[in-house]
Amino acid sequence: MKGKILVTGGAGYIGSHTTVELQNAGYEVVVLDNLSNSNAGVIDGIEHITGIRPAFVQMDLQDKDALRKLFEEHKGIKGIINFAASKAVGESVQKPLLYYRNNLVTLMNLLDLMPEYGVEAIVFSSSCTVYGQPDILPVDEKAPIKPAMSPYGNTKQICEEIIKDTIYSGVPFKSIILRYFNPIGAHPTAEIGELPLGVPQNLLPYVTQTAMGIREQLSVFGDDYNTPDGSCIRDYINVVDLAKAHVIAVDRMLGGKSKQDVEIFNLGTGKGVSVLELIQTFEKATGVKVNYKIVGRREGDIEKVWANPEWANKELGWEAKETLEDTLASAWKWQQKLRERGIM
Question: What total number of domains does the chain contain?
Answer without folding.
Answer: 1
